[in-house]
Amino acid sequence: MSNATRHEPCWDSSSLNEFLQRQIAPGVVVANAKRLSGGAIQENWCLTLRHDDGHSEEVVLRCNAASHVSESRSRAEEYHLLCVADAAGVTVAKPLALGDDCLGRDFFIMAKAAGIGAAHRLVRDPRLHGNNGDQFVENIGREIARLHKIAANEPLLKFLPTLTDTPSAVGIAQCRAYLAQHHQSHPALQWALRWLVQNQPKQQRVSLCHRDFRTGNFLVEATQLTAILDWEFAAWSDPMEDIGWFCARCWRFGEDAREAGGIGSREAFYRGYEGESGHSINAQSVYFWEVYAHVRWAVIALQQAERMLSGTESSLELGLTAHVVPELELELLRMTGASPTALARPIPHN
Known about the structure:
Blueprint: H1 13-23, E1 29-35, E2 42-50, E3 56-64, H2 75-87, E4 95-98, E5 107-111, H3 119-124, H4 133-147, H5 167-181, H6 187-198, E6 207-209, E7 218-221, E8 224-228, E9 235-237, H7 239-247, H8 266-277, H9 283-309, H10 316-321, H11 325-336
Antiparallel strand pairs: 1-2, 2-3, 3-5, 4-5, 6-9, 7-8
Helix pairs in contact: 4-8, 5-6, 5-9, 6-9, 6-11, 7-9, 9-11
């Protein structure tokens, strides 16, 4: 698939119109379709729908890309995750309809949320979060706390794999299994995995976690969060995994002094989370999950490059993603004390 064809709709318009008329409204048709930026693993299309009374609305069609990352959820699973999160009061794009086989690939339809999602803009333009990054990340903390109230006995999420060990042990095993079969060796990542094995948190809770909750995966308009995006990695895990992922240096997009997503302070983010969840955050546990975030993002970056190298999807973006791995490895050496040329940050203690 060439880069040009990736921007052409992948469906038969009459089949899609018939589906929309069954699921959205009689007489509705697609007046325009535009591929949205972002969505490095799946495809997102903005559809302008024209109703038979003349009015128009925009929705988003999210469908499978030509290739995938192994741990990514199916579109049906992602749709049900959105439904559960929406019911729990988490700010998401409202799910509207789960696709059938009319397009030849899995998809679902959701409402189009307004706002800006580009991470480099969100961290550098204070007008987007009201010149008060701390207030914004405090609200973000409340959002993720609402998600973590969804427990592992949620009947609509029975498709999520049951944990066979602690969340940390499961995550370490997944990363180790991928690196063991990879055609290149990555000693720094193996070192970091060894550190993770030796420093697993003694106490871990289990709840629904987004597992890719970061700046760039939510939309902001007029200083307000309008939707948390990209639920394809969601799973049962320790809630501190989401906290560590959001605070990890690799997701601050150069604004390292603002430890909560490159936008605000860690203290404000924690304050919002603790106030909404009723649970205290253990700094040492978060540090573990920040190290894990760098390892897991390195593994995902390698998987993204493999999607292009396999020949199934021609994308310069996918091919270049693997170039972040050396930077992640350097940060891991600093965090785990293995670098002879840089002082490691000490593991925090409450």
